[in-house]
Amino acid sequence: MIETGGLIRSLSGRRAARNFHNFVINEIGHAIVTGEFPIGSVLASDAVMMEKYGVSRTVLREALKTLEAKGLVEARPKVGTRVSPKSRWNFFDPQVLAWHYHAAPDPGLYESLFRVRAALETPMIALATRHRTAEHVRLLKYWCHQMETAGDSIEQFGLACLEVHGVIAESGRDPLLRSILGVIELTLALALTRDRTMGAEAYRTALAGRFIDLTAAIESGTPEAAAKLYESIRLLDESQAV
To answer: Per the database record, which ranges form the HTH gntR-type domain (predicted)?
Structure first.
């Protein structure tokens, strides 16, 4: 399972440790999303791909199986591995979404991601306000403090912000709602690096303040106030990103 956070970490230029399996997945996945390997095209033979990426047949085959599970490719007998249409791609997969960050800007996709946030965050915050525990509140306060003290570190701020969203999803006791975290991570990465309506520092300050107010609303168990604050956070992200 791919966890969220990798895209935010990459914003600071930090590279993950080299792993041949993940390397091949990232190289081919990125090439598909950016159009280097067009939709409907058949990937080169195993021998060519092994030479291109410098990996064994076993590593290549395992990487292609992973990409097939994400919906990006389909292996067919006597045809080869074909790039699937976008309608089959798993857009809730954090890795697939991360590749879109590095592709050409797609305002239609970004708007769609914010529509998904609007649809899923409404029940998520309602459940969080109802089921939160003292430990959830403690974690929310801790991560809000990490946001406040992040300074110029986009990585620290972004990861702390993502953790807040994760605690909210976790406290709602609905495991399916955690599937939205990949969507949130991509929209957050866009907001942190686009500077559409305000400067980066002003945006981070405003966002941290709203999360602090949201934590207070969750702690006090006031669902209407929490819902309005969570909506304002999404709208702030959207105005900055799209």
So the answer is: 18-86
